[in-house]
Protein backbone atom coordinates (compact mmCIF):
# COMPACT_ATOMS: atom_id res chain seq x y z
CA UNK A 1 0.00 0.00 0.00
CA UNK A 2 1.34 3.44 -0.95
CA UNK A 3 0.19 6.41 1.11
CA UNK A 4 0.50 9.57 -0.98
CA UNK A 5 1.14 12.63 1.16
CA UNK A 6 0.00 16.03 -0.05
CA UNK A 7 -0.10 18.08 3.14
CA UNK A 8 -3.84 18.45 2.70
CA UNK A 9 -5.78 15.19 2.59
CA UNK A 10 -4.43 12.78 5.23
CA UNK A 11 -7.16 10.89 7.09
CA UNK A 12 -7.23 8.58 10.09
CA UNK A 13 -8.45 5.71 7.93
CA UNK A 14 -5.33 6.23 5.78
CA UNK A 15 -3.19 5.78 8.88
CA UNK A 16 -5.17 2.70 9.93
CA UNK A 17 -4.67 1.09 6.50
CA UNK A 18 -1.01 2.12 6.35
CA UNK A 19 -0.26 0.45 9.68
CA UNK A 20 -2.33 -2.64 8.92
CA UNK A 21 -0.76 -3.21 5.50
CA UNK A 22 2.76 -2.06 6.44
CA UNK A 23 2.66 0.54 3.69
CA UNK A 24 5.14 3.10 2.40
CA UNK A 25 4.73 6.83 1.83
CA UNK A 26 5.22 8.78 -1.37
CA UNK A 27 4.96 12.50 -2.00
CA UNK A 28 3.04 14.32 -4.73
CA UNK A 29 4.89 16.65 -7.08
CA UNK A 30 2.81 19.71 -6.19
CA UNK A 31 3.71 19.21 -2.52
CA UNK A 32 7.41 19.11 -3.39
CA UNK A 33 7.01 22.31 -5.39
CA UNK A 34 5.48 24.04 -2.36
CA UNK A 35 8.40 22.88 -0.23
CA UNK A 36 10.91 24.28 -2.73
CA UNK A 37 9.09 27.62 -2.90
CA UNK A 38 9.04 28.05 0.88
CA UNK A 39 12.72 27.11 1.09
CA UNK A 40 13.57 29.73 -1.50
CA UNK A 41 11.95 32.31 0.79
CA UNK A 42 14.19 31.23 3.66
CA UNK A 43 17.25 31.56 1.44
CA UNK A 44 16.20 35.10 0.47
CA UNK A 45 15.79 36.00 4.15
CA UNK A 46 19.30 34.80 4.82
CA UNK A 47 20.73 36.60 1.80
CA UNK A 48 18.99 39.86 2.78
CA UNK A 49 20.05 39.52 6.45
CA UNK A 50 16.48 40.03 7.66
CA UNK A 51 15.53 39.66 11.33
CA UNK A 52 13.16 36.69 11.41
CA UNK A 53 12.42 34.59 14.48
CA UNK A 54 14.13 31.23 14.55
CA UNK A 55 16.02 31.82 11.31
CA UNK A 56 18.31 34.70 12.18
CA UNK A 57 17.42 34.96 15.90
CA UNK A 58 17.42 32.72 18.95
CA UNK A 59 14.36 30.99 20.38
CA UNK A 60 11.82 31.68 23.10
CA UNK A 61 13.10 34.40 25.42
CA UNK A 62 16.16 34.64 23.14
CA UNK A 63 14.03 35.77 20.20
CA UNK A 64 15.68 39.23 20.35
CA UNK A 65 19.19 37.78 20.10
CA UNK A 66 20.60 38.04 16.56
CA UNK A 67 22.70 35.10 15.38
CA UNK A 68 25.82 35.45 13.23
CA UNK A 69 25.19 34.29 9.67
CA UNK A 70 27.86 31.62 9.77
CA UNK A 71 26.15 30.03 12.79
CA UNK A 72 22.60 29.70 11.43
CA UNK A 73 22.97 25.96 10.84
CA UNK A 74 24.71 25.42 14.19
CA UNK A 75 21.76 27.17 15.85
CA UNK A 76 19.38 24.53 14.50
CA UNK A 77 21.48 21.58 15.69
CA UNK A 78 21.92 23.18 19.11
CA UNK A 79 18.15 23.56 19.31
CA UNK A 80 17.58 19.86 18.74
CA UNK A 81 20.28 18.75 21.17
CA UNK A 82 19.18 21.05 23.99
CA UNK A 83 15.50 20.26 23.61
CA UNK A 84 15.92 16.47 23.45
CA UNK A 85 15.46 15.99 27.18
CA UNK A 86 12.35 13.83 27.29
CA UNK A 87 12.12 11.18 29.98
CA UNK A 88 10.09 8.11 30.84
CA UNK A 89 9.02 5.11 28.83
CA UNK A 90 9.12 5.60 25.06
CA UNK A 91 6.05 6.00 22.89
CA UNK A 92 5.07 2.83 21.05
CA UNK A 93 6.69 2.24 17.69
CA UNK A 94 3.35 2.83 15.97
CA UNK A 95 2.98 6.21 17.64
CA UNK A 96 6.55 7.22 16.73
CA UNK A 97 6.00 6.10 13.14
CA UNK A 98 2.78 8.08 12.87
CA UNK A 99 4.56 11.06 14.44
CA UNK A 100 7.03 11.04 11.54
CA UNK A 101 4.22 10.77 8.98
CA UNK A 102 2.36 13.70 10.52
CA UNK A 103 5.49 15.83 10.73
CA UNK A 104 6.29 15.10 7.09
CA UNK A 105 2.74 15.90 6.05
CA UNK A 106 2.77 19.32 7.71
CA UNK A 107 6.13 20.21 6.15
CA UNK A 108 4.62 19.41 2.75
CA UNK A 109 2.13 22.24 3.13
CA UNK A 110 4.98 24.55 2.16
CA UNK A 111 4.88 27.00 5.06
CA UNK A 112 7.88 25.72 7.04
CA UNK A 113 10.92 26.43 4.88
CA UNK A 114 12.27 22.87 4.95
CA UNK A 115 14.70 21.58 2.34
CA UNK A 116 13.95 18.72 -0.01
CA UNK A 117 16.80 16.86 1.70
CA UNK A 118 14.92 16.95 5.01
CA UNK A 119 11.72 15.82 3.31
CA UNK A 120 13.49 12.85 1.75
CA UNK A 121 15.19 11.93 5.03
CA UNK A 122 11.86 11.71 6.82
CA UNK A 123 10.42 9.68 3.94
CA UNK A 124 13.43 7.34 4.08
CA UNK A 125 13.07 6.76 7.82
CA UNK A 126 9.35 6.03 7.46
CA UNK A 127 9.72 3.62 4.56
CA UNK A 128 12.71 1.78 6.03
CA UNK A 129 10.97 1.64 9.43
CA UNK A 130 13.86 3.35 11.19
CA UNK A 131 11.73 4.47 14.11
CA UNK A 132 13.08 6.98 16.66
CA UNK A 133 13.00 6.09 20.35
CA UNK A 134 10.93 8.96 21.75
CA UNK A 135 10.38 9.33 25.53
CA UNK A 136 6.76 10.04 26.45
CA UNK A 137 7.20 12.62 29.19
CA UNK A 138 8.39 16.19 29.00
CA UNK A 139 6.04 18.08 26.68
CA UNK A 140 3.86 20.99 27.77
CA UNK A 141 1.87 20.84 24.55
CA UNK A 142 2.61 24.41 23.47
CA UNK A 143 5.53 25.79 21.51
CA UNK A 144 4.86 22.38 20.08
CA UNK A 145 5.74 18.98 21.46
CA UNK A 146 9.29 20.22 21.77
CA UNK A 147 10.97 17.43 23.72
CA UNK A 148 9.37 14.46 21.90
CA UNK A 149 9.88 15.96 18.46
CA UNK A 150 13.50 16.79 19.30
CA UNK A 151 14.13 13.10 19.93
CA UNK A 152 12.57 12.41 16.53
CA UNK A 153 14.88 15.00 14.96
CA UNK A 154 17.94 13.59 16.76
CA UNK A 155 17.51 10.33 14.89
CA UNK A 156 17.46 12.14 11.55
CA UNK A 157 20.83 13.78 12.27
CA UNK A 158 22.36 10.53 13.47
CA UNK A 159 22.51 11.32 17.18
CA UNK A 160 19.55 9.46 18.70
CA UNK A 161 18.43 5.91 19.25
CA UNK A 162 16.07 4.07 16.93
CA UNK A 163 14.14 0.85 16.66
CA UNK A 164 15.33 -1.07 13.64
CA UNK A 165 14.63 -4.69 12.75
CA UNK A 166 13.63 -5.59 16.29
CA UNK A 167 16.54 -3.90 18.04
CA UNK A 168 17.29 -0.57 19.72
CA UNK A 169 20.36 0.84 18.01
CA UNK A 170 22.23 4.11 17.56
CA UNK A 171 20.77 5.98 14.63
CA UNK A 172 24.21 6.67 13.17
CA UNK A 173 25.10 2.96 13.21
CA UNK A 174 21.89 2.10 11.35
CA UNK A 175 22.44 4.85 8.77
CA UNK A 176 26.05 3.80 8.24
CA UNK A 177 24.96 0.21 7.77
CA UNK A 178 22.46 1.30 5.12
CA UNK A 179 24.91 3.62 3.38
CA UNK A 180 22.74 6.63 4.23
CA UNK A 181 24.13 9.90 5.58
CA UNK A 182 22.54 11.72 8.52
CA UNK A 183 20.83 14.96 7.55
CA UNK A 184 22.74 18.23 8.03
CA UNK A 185 20.12 20.67 9.25
CA UNK A 186 19.93 24.01 7.48
CA UNK A 187 18.62 27.34 8.75
CA UNK A 188 15.03 27.09 10.08
CA UNK A 189 14.90 23.28 9.83
CA UNK A 190 15.38 22.39 13.49
CA UNK A 191 12.53 24.70 14.39
CA UNK A 192 10.45 23.32 11.52
CA UNK A 193 10.84 19.83 12.95
CA UNK A 194 9.89 20.51 16.55
CA UNK A 195 7.26 23.28 16.44
CA UNK A 196 4.03 21.32 16.25
CA UNK A 197 1.63 18.97 18.00
CA UNK A 198 2.64 15.72 16.33
CA UNK A 199 3.33 13.80 19.56
CA UNK A 200 -0.09 14.43 21.09
CA UNK A 201 -1.79 14.08 17.71
CA UNK A 202 -0.05 10.81 16.81
CA UNK A 203 -0.88 9.27 20.19
CA UNK A 204 -4.43 10.56 19.81
CA UNK A 205 -4.75 8.96 16.37
CA UNK A 206 -3.56 5.57 17.62
CA UNK A 207 -5.84 5.78 20.66
CA UNK A 208 -8.84 6.74 18.54
CA UNK A 209 -8.25 3.91 16.04
CA UNK A 210 -8.17 1.38 18.88
CA UNK A 211 -11.03 3.05 20.77
CA UNK A 212 -13.37 2.89 17.78
CA UNK A 213 -12.58 -0.78 17.29
CA UNK A 214 -13.11 -1.44 20.99
CA UNK A 215 -16.44 0.38 20.85
CA UNK A 216 -17.68 -2.10 18.23
CA UNK A 217 -16.29 -5.04 20.20
CA UNK A 218 -18.11 -3.82 23.29
CA UNK A 219 -21.39 -4.47 21.46
CA UNK A 220 -20.99 -8.19 20.89
CA UNK A 221 -19.67 -8.55 24.43
CA UNK A 222 -22.75 -6.68 25.68
CA UNK A 223 -24.91 -8.92 23.47
CA UNK A 224 -23.54 -11.99 25.26
CA UNK A 225 -24.33 -10.38 28.61
CA UNK A 226 -27.78 -9.39 27.36
CA UNK A 227 -28.57 -13.02 26.54
CA UNK A 228 -27.12 -14.34 29.80
CA UNK A 229 -29.48 -12.00 31.64
CA UNK A 230 -32.47 -12.79 29.39
CA UNK A 231 -32.60 -9.16 28.30
CA UNK A 232 -35.50 -7.44 26.53
CA UNK A 233 -34.93 -6.54 22.88
CA UNK A 234 -37.83 -4.07 22.61
CA UNK A 235 -35.57 -1.31 23.92
CA UNK A 236 -33.56 -1.55 20.69
CA UNK A 237 -36.57 -1.04 18.42
CA UNK A 238 -35.62 1.50 15.72
CA UNK A 239 -38.68 3.67 16.40
CA UNK A 240 -37.32 4.58 19.84
CA UNK A 241 -33.99 5.73 18.50
CA UNK A 242 -35.29 7.50 15.43
CA UNK A 243 -37.14 10.01 17.58
CA UNK A 244 -34.02 10.77 19.65
CA UNK A 245 -32.22 12.13 16.55
CA UNK A 246 -28.72 10.89 17.37
CA UNK A 247 -27.42 8.77 14.46
CA UNK A 248 -24.76 7.08 16.60
CA UNK A 249 -27.42 5.88 19.06
CA UNK A 250 -29.57 4.56 16.22
CA UNK A 251 -26.56 2.73 14.75
CA UNK A 252 -25.74 1.01 18.05
CA UNK A 253 -29.36 -0.14 18.43
CA UNK A 254 -29.32 -1.53 14.89
CA UNK A 255 -26.09 -3.39 15.52
CA UNK A 256 -27.34 -4.78 18.84
CA UNK A 257 -30.42 -6.21 17.14
CA UNK A 258 -28.15 -7.68 14.47
CA UNK A 259 -25.98 -9.38 17.09
CA UNK A 260 -29.06 -10.74 18.88
CA UNK A 261 -31.01 -11.87 15.84
CA UNK A 262 -32.10 -15.49 16.17
CA UNK A 263 -31.43 -15.71 19.91
CA UNK A 264 -33.66 -17.92 22.05
CA UNK A 265 -32.37 -16.32 25.23
CA UNK A 266 -33.73 -12.82 24.70
CA UNK A 267 -37.20 -11.79 25.86
CA UNK A 268 -39.92 -9.29 25.08
CA UNK A 269 -41.23 -6.72 27.53
CA UNK A 270 -43.64 -8.30 29.95
CA UNK A 271 -42.39 -11.90 29.57
CA UNK A 272 -39.98 -11.94 32.51
CA UNK A 273 -40.00 -8.27 33.43
CA UNK A 274 -41.40 -5.05 32.02
CA UNK A 275 -38.09 -3.17 31.78
CA UNK A 276 -34.42 -4.01 31.97
CA UNK A 277 -31.92 -2.08 34.08
CA UNK A 278 -30.24 0.83 32.35
CA UNK A 279 -27.02 -1.07 31.67
CA UNK A 280 -28.95 -3.27 29.22
CA UNK A 281 -31.83 -1.04 28.20
CA UNK A 282 -29.68 2.02 27.52
CA UNK A 283 -26.78 0.41 25.66
CA UNK A 284 -27.63 2.39 22.47
CA UNK A 285 -27.79 5.66 24.38
CA UNK A 286 -24.60 5.06 26.38
CA UNK A 287 -22.43 3.42 23.72
CA UNK A 288 -23.85 5.74 21.07
CA UNK A 289 -22.74 8.77 23.06
CA UNK A 290 -19.19 7.39 23.09
CA UNK A 291 -19.32 7.09 19.32
CA UNK A 292 -20.42 10.73 19.20
CA UNK A 293 -17.24 11.56 21.10
CA UNK A 294 -15.17 9.45 18.72
CA UNK A 295 -16.63 11.26 15.71
CA UNK A 296 -15.90 14.66 17.24
CA UNK A 297 -12.33 13.69 18.07
CA UNK A 298 -11.79 12.26 14.59
CA UNK A 299 -12.83 15.59 13.06
CA UNK A 300 -10.45 17.61 15.23
CA UNK A 301 -7.52 15.23 14.79
CA UNK A 302 -7.91 15.22 11.02
CA UNK A 303 -7.90 19.04 11.03
CA UNK A 304 -4.62 18.99 12.93
CA UNK A 305 -3.10 16.21 10.83
CA UNK A 306 -3.31 18.52 7.81
CA UNK A 307 -2.46 21.77 9.59
CA UNK A 308 0.54 24.08 9.35
CA UNK A 309 1.58 24.32 12.99
CA UNK A 310 5.13 25.62 12.64
CA UNK A 311 6.38 29.06 13.73
CA UNK A 312 7.10 31.32 11.99
CA UNK A 313 5.01 30.48 8.95
CA UNK A 314 6.01 31.40 5.43
CA UNK A 315 3.47 32.67 2.90
CA UNK A 316 4.58 33.41 -0.65
CA UNK A 317 2.07 33.64 -3.48
CA UNK A 318 4.56 35.08 -5.96
CA UNK A 319 3.36 38.64 -5.55
CA UNK A 320 3.70 39.02 -1.80
CA UNK A 321 5.95 37.31 0.71
CA UNK A 322 5.04 37.17 4.40
CA UNK A 323 6.89 35.51 7.26
CA UNK A 324 4.67 35.73 10.33
CA UNK A 325 5.25 34.64 13.91
CA UNK A 326 2.12 33.11 15.39
CA UNK A 327 0.96 30.34 17.66
CA UNK A 328 -0.30 27.42 15.57
CA UNK A 329 1.91 25.13 17.64
CA UNK A 330 -0.40 25.64 20.64
CA UNK A 331 -2.09 22.33 21.36
CA UNK A 332 -5.31 23.62 22.92
CA UNK A 333 -7.74 22.38 20.21
CA UNK A 334 -6.19 18.92 20.26
CA UNK A 335 -5.91 18.90 24.06
CA UNK A 336 -9.62 19.55 24.47
CA UNK A 337 -10.48 16.82 21.98
CA UNK A 338 -8.21 14.27 23.67
CA UNK A 339 -9.63 15.07 27.10
CA UNK A 340 -13.10 14.49 25.63
CA UNK A 341 -11.88 11.18 24.19
CA UNK A 342 -10.87 10.08 27.68
CA UNK A 343 -14.43 10.63 28.93
CA UNK A 344 -15.98 8.75 26.00
CA UNK A 345 -13.73 5.76 26.57
CA UNK A 346 -14.15 5.77 30.33
CA UNK A 347 -17.91 5.41 30.06
CA UNK A 348 -17.59 2.26 27.95
CA UNK A 349 -15.64 0.81 30.86
CA UNK A 350 -18.06 2.09 33.49
CA UNK A 351 -21.13 0.52 31.90
CA UNK A 352 -19.26 -2.72 31.18
CA UNK A 353 -18.32 -3.08 34.84
CA UNK A 354 -21.94 -2.57 35.88
CA UNK A 355 -23.09 -5.24 33.41
CA UNK A 356 -20.57 -7.79 34.61
CA UNK A 357 -21.57 -7.05 38.21
CA UNK A 358 -25.10 -8.12 37.32
CA UNK A 359 -23.74 -11.39 35.93
CA UNK A 360 -21.94 -12.35 39.14
CA UNK A 361 -24.39 -10.97 41.71
CA UNK A 362 -26.91 -13.70 42.69
CA UNK A 363 -29.46 -11.02 43.57
CA UNK A 364 -29.35 -9.67 40.02
CA UNK A 365 -28.37 -12.50 37.65
CA UNK A 366 -31.66 -14.34 37.41
CA UNK A 367 -30.80 -17.63 39.08
CA UNK A 368 -27.18 -18.13 38.00
CA UNK A 369 -24.73 -19.29 40.68
CA UNK A 370 -23.13 -16.63 42.85
CA UNK A 371 -20.02 -15.36 41.04
CA UNK A 372 -20.69 -18.13 38.50
CA UNK A 373 -18.71 -20.41 40.79
CA UNK A 374 -18.63 -24.11 39.85
CA UNK A 375 -18.73 -24.87 43.61
CA UNK A 376 -20.00 -21.83 45.54
CA UNK A 377 -18.07 -21.46 48.76
CA UNK A 378 -15.20 -23.80 47.86
CA UNK A 379 -14.50 -22.02 44.58
CA UNK A 380 -14.60 -18.20 44.32
CA UNK A 381 -15.27 -18.19 40.58
CA UNK A 382 -15.48 -14.71 39.04
CA UNK A 383 -15.68 -12.87 42.36
CA UNK A 384 -12.33 -11.07 42.21
CA UNK A 385 -12.50 -10.39 38.49
CA UNK A 386 -15.30 -7.96 39.35
CA UNK A 387 -13.01 -6.36 41.95
CA UNK A 388 -10.36 -5.86 39.27
CA UNK A 389 -12.85 -4.29 36.88
CA UNK A 390 -14.05 -1.96 39.64
CA UNK A 391 -10.46 -0.95 40.34
CA UNK A 392 -9.77 -0.21 36.67
CA UNK A 393 -12.85 1.95 36.15
CA UNK A 394 -12.07 3.84 39.35
CA UNK A 395 -8.54 4.50 38.12
CA UNK A 396 -9.99 5.77 34.85
CA UNK A 397 -12.04 8.35 36.72
CA UNK A 398 -8.77 9.85 37.94
CA UNK A 399 -7.07 9.62 34.54
CA UNK A 400 -10.10 11.21 32.85
CA UNK A 401 -9.57 14.46 34.75
CA UNK A 402 -8.85 16.99 31.97
CA UNK A 403 -5.16 17.71 31.55
CA UNK A 404 -6.04 20.79 29.53
CA UNK A 405 -7.36 22.74 32.52
CA UNK A 406 -3.79 23.07 33.80
CA UNK A 407 -1.08 25.45 32.62
CA UNK A 408 2.39 26.31 33.90
CA UNK A 409 4.38 29.19 32.37
CA UNK A 410 7.70 28.39 30.71
CA UNK A 411 10.61 30.12 28.98
CA UNK A 412 10.82 32.85 31.63
CA UNK A 413 7.10 33.60 31.18
CA UNK A 414 7.41 34.23 27.44
CA UNK A 415 5.42 31.04 26.90
CA UNK A 416 2.93 31.77 29.64
CA UNK A 417 0.04 29.47 28.73
CA UNK A 418 0.38 25.86 27.61
CA UNK A 419 -2.09 23.09 26.75
CA UNK A 420 -0.75 19.96 28.50
CA UNK A 421 -2.28 18.09 25.56
CA UNK A 422 0.43 15.44 25.44
CA UNK A 423 -0.29 14.50 29.04
CA UNK A 424 -3.94 14.10 28.05
CA UNK A 425 -2.91 11.96 25.08
CA UNK A 426 -0.80 9.69 27.28
CA UNK A 427 -3.52 9.33 29.90
CA UNK A 428 -6.00 8.58 27.16
CA UNK A 429 -4.09 5.52 26.06
CA UNK A 430 -3.87 4.33 29.67
CA UNK A 431 -7.64 4.65 29.90
CA UNK A 432 -8.04 2.71 26.65
CA UNK A 433 -5.93 -0.16 27.98
CA UNK A 434 -7.94 -0.22 31.21
CA UNK A 435 -11.24 -0.26 29.33
CA UNK A 436 -10.01 -3.08 27.12
CA UNK A 437 -9.23 -5.14 30.21
CA UNK A 438 -12.63 -4.38 31.74
CA UNK A 439 -14.33 -5.55 28.54
CA UNK A 440 -12.11 -8.63 28.54
CA UNK A 441 -13.38 -9.41 32.05
CA UNK A 442 -16.99 -8.90 30.96
CA UNK A 443 -16.37 -11.21 28.00
CA UNK A 444 -14.88 -13.96 30.19
CA UNK A 445 -17.75 -13.76 32.65
CA UNK A 446 -20.40 -13.53 29.91
CA UNK A 447 -18.97 -16.64 28.23
CA UNK A 448 -19.42 -18.56 31.43
CA UNK A 449 -22.88 -17.15 32.05
CA UNK A 450 -24.25 -18.07 28.61
CA UNK A 451 -22.81 -21.57 29.04
CA UNK A 452 -24.84 -21.93 32.19
CA UNK A 453 -27.89 -20.42 30.51
CA UNK A 454 -27.66 -22.73 27.49
CA UNK A 455 -25.44 -22.35 24.41
CA UNK A 456 -28.13 -23.66 22.08
CA UNK A 457 -30.08 -20.50 22.73
CA UNK A 458 -27.39 -18.09 21.58
CA UNK A 459 -27.87 -16.05 18.44
CA UNK A 460 -25.76 -17.36 15.54
CA UNK A 461 -23.50 -14.31 15.48
CA UNK A 462 -22.76 -14.35 19.19
CA UNK A 463 -22.30 -18.13 19.11
CA UNK A 464 -19.54 -17.56 16.53
CA UNK A 465 -17.90 -15.06 18.91
CA UNK A 466 -18.29 -17.53 21.77
CA UNK A 467 -16.50 -20.21 19.76
CA UNK A 468 -13.62 -17.86 18.91
CA UNK A 469 -13.17 -16.81 22.53
CA UNK A 470 -13.28 -20.38 23.80
CA UNK A 471 -10.12 -21.02 21.78
CA UNK A 472 -8.46 -18.40 23.99
CA UNK A 473 -10.05 -18.90 27.39
CA UNK A 474 -11.50 -22.22 28.66
CA UNK A 475 -14.64 -22.67 30.72
CA UNK A 476 -14.39 -22.07 34.45
CA UNK A 477 -14.50 -25.57 35.88
CA UNK A 478 -12.35 -24.68 38.87
CA UNK A 479 -10.50 -21.67 40.24
CA UNK A 480 -7.34 -20.74 38.37
CA UNK A 481 -5.08 -17.74 37.76
CA UNK A 482 -7.61 -15.57 35.97
CA UNK A 483 -5.11 -12.79 35.30
CA UNK A 484 -3.77 -14.91 32.45
CA UNK A 485 -7.25 -15.18 30.93
CA UNK A 486 -7.77 -11.42 31.20
CA UNK A 487 -4.46 -10.76 29.45
CA UNK A 488 -5.17 -13.24 26.66
CA UNK A 489 -8.62 -11.86 25.92
CA UNK A 490 -7.42 -8.24 26.12
CA UNK A 491 -4.66 -9.06 23.63
CA UNK A 492 -7.25 -10.61 21.34
CA UNK A 493 -9.44 -7.51 21.53
CA UNK A 494 -6.45 -5.34 20.63
CA UNK A 495 -5.37 -7.54 17.76
CA UNK A 496 -8.74 -7.98 16.07
CA UNK A 497 -9.96 -4.77 14.47
CA UNK A 498 -13.70 -4.13 14.16
CA UNK A 499 -15.42 -1.53 12.00
CA UNK A 500 -19.08 -0.91 11.22
UniProtKB/TrEMBL annotation:
EC number: 4.3.1.3
Keywords: Cytoplasm, Histidine metabolism, Lyase
Segments forming a coiled coil: none
CDD domains reported in the protein's UniProt record: PAL-HAL
Entry's localization field: Cytoplasm
2,3-didehydroalanine (Ser): residues bearing it: 143
Cross-link 5-imidazolinone (Ala-Gly) per UniProt, renumbered positions: 142-144
Matching InterPro entries: Aromatic_Lyase, Fumarase/histidase_N, HutH, L-Aspartase-like, Phe/His_NH3-lyase_AS
GO molecular function, one term: histidine ammonia-lyase activity
Processing after translation: Contains an active site 4-methylidene-imidazol-5-one (MIO), which is formed autocatalytically by cyclization and dehydration of residues Ala-Ser-Gly.
Pathway as given in its UniProt record: Amino-acid degradation; L-histidine degradation into L-glutamate; N-formimidoyl-L-glutamate from L-histidine: step 1/3
Family (UniProt): Belongs to the PAL/histidase family.
Name assigned to this protein: Histidine ammonia-lyase
Source species: Staphylococcus americanisciuri
Amino acid sequence: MILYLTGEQLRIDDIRTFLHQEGIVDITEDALERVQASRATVERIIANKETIYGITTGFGLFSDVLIDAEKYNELQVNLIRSHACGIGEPFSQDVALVMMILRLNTLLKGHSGATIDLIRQLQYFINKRIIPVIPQQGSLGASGDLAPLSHLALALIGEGEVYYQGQVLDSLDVLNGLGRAPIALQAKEGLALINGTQAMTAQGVITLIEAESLGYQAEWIAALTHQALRGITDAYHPAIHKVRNFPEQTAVARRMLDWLEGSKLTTKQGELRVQDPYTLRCIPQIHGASFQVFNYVREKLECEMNAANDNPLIFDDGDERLVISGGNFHGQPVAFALDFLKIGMSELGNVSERRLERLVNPQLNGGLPAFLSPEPGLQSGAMIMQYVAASLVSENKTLAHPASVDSIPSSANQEDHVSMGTIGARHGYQILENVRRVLAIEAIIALQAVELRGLDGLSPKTRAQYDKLREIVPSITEDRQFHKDITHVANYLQKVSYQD
